Amino acid sequence: MNWIADSxxxxxxxxxxxxxxxxxxxxxxxxxxxxxxxxxxEMLPDGGRVTVVCGKGNNGGDGLVVARLAHRHGxxxxxxxxxxxxxxxxxxxxxxAEAEAAGVEPLFVGDDQYQEKLECVGxxxxxxxxxxxxxxxxxxxxxxxxxxxxxxxxxxxxIAVDLPSGIHCDTGEELGESVWACRTVTFGLPKPFLFQGIxxxxxxxxxxxxxxxxxxxxxxxxxxxxxxxxxxxxQLPDRMRSSHKGDSGRLLIVAGSAHYPGAAALAARGAxxxxxxxxxxxxxxxxxxxVAAQLPEACVLPLPxxxxxxxxxxxxxxxxxxxxxxxxxxxxxxxxxxxxxxxSKLWLLWQGPSVLDADALNLIAQGQAAPPSGPCVLTPxxxxxARLMGASTAEVQNGRFQYAREAARRFxxxxxxxxxxxxAAEEGEPLxxxxxxxxxxxxxxxxxxxxxxxxxxxxxxxxxxxAAACGAxxxxxxxxxxxxxxxxxxxxxxxxxxxxxxARATILSRCGLEPSS
Length: 517
Description:
Layout: H1 7-21, H2 25-43, E1 49-54, H3 58-72, E2 76-81, H4 90-101, E3 107-108, H5 114-119, E4 126-130, H6 142-154, E5 158-161, E6 183-187, H7 199-202, E7 205-209, H8 215-218, E8 224-226, H9 229-235, E9 250-254, H10 262-273, E10 278-283, H11 285-294, E11 299-302, E12 305-306, E13 309-310, H12 314-320, E14 326-329, H13 337-349, E15 354-356, H14 359-365, E16 376-378, H15 382-389, H16 393-398, H17 400-411, E17 414-417, E18 423-425, E19 431-433, H18 446-459, H19 464-486, H20 493-498, H21 500-510
Parallel strand pairs: 1-2, 1-4, 2-3, 4-5, 5-6, 6-7, 8-19, 9-10, 9-14, 10-11, 14-15, 15-16, 16-17
Antiparallel strand pairs: 12-13, 17-18, 18-19
């Protein structure tokens, strides 16, 4: 169930389940309510006081099922409906009748105690948010907004039904005001709001429940896919027993400057730990000396320099040095005029696959250089993507799927938009969304290591999109292993690089593909 469903696909799922498989809306609501109630039981295993806040549509109907189940199991239940009785949709009204028959006593907008109960939701052990569903579009107003504001002001933990109310399903943007949930139970398939915009934060811990949708419906392709161990494990390159270093890829890394000597070393460390057979760092003499001291396994190619950066005349020397299967360009190069001229000349001569990162991307954004004509993986963080696309960083973060797709189309290259839930995009292919990684990775050098990992896989003949997505997943899982061992603060990019072999073995073990002996 790894396909990601936007709001249109959600509507299709409901319709196909009913028309092609004979399910009813009542059944889907019952399954949804049961899924959320299981989350209630997990958070309040010994019972407690629960307020279920419902809207007038199908999301509210799901909430009414939760209220009925909670009441039946002995929870103290308040049910508040942010609408008038006559405004309820037919399916929501049917769930209301079932809840009332079971003993639930709902309060509607305009009822004497409604406002008092709404203002006292902070006195409850748990709130269930069932106000708005995946179809919400316009800015929230009136009783719905008042209910969202009361929920957020309460301080009580919140379970969101399908999505936090006030979040746009397809973009993760806030519709004026939105619920802060600590837990979200979404239905059928994961949805875009979980991976971008404010929705990514407001969803809290999330899970997906199939709620009875037939598996053939859940396996239909959409335009975005959530990566997992099985997909990545099937893509990772393996080695024959007779393999030698030349079979494992020759990677060139053009990186570093006198001011940023560490970037080249980190990219090289990531590449070596990701299995590249031969790694050559081409840079100014001081960087080469630093790399040689830290990584005796790496080769170095000292180049002429201009004001601490690689000089323009180094381009021919780099290309003539030897055969390389792939290259990484950019980390720590600086954006000096000499570097811009170097890359412009070098990229006219370079024909192999490459990773473009950091200063290489910034020079492209400034119009100082054009990407190589061969296969490329661009790896911008949100700020670099904003410069590439002429947008603000906030706009990129609120539309990560959109900007990744647009950048891939505009440049005709594979694009990796880094950050929480890194996105890999290639024109004509589904987006690949990475679930691994954690906030402990928000420190210097992590992107340099990722460039080396992706470069190593390109050097081992992996297609660009596969290399980009697998690199992001593998890199993030290495960070997750460090999180388990060291906590969420203070681990280093070099430590993450050193955790890559264990992360690879973990992926293969989880999906039943034992690491090669």
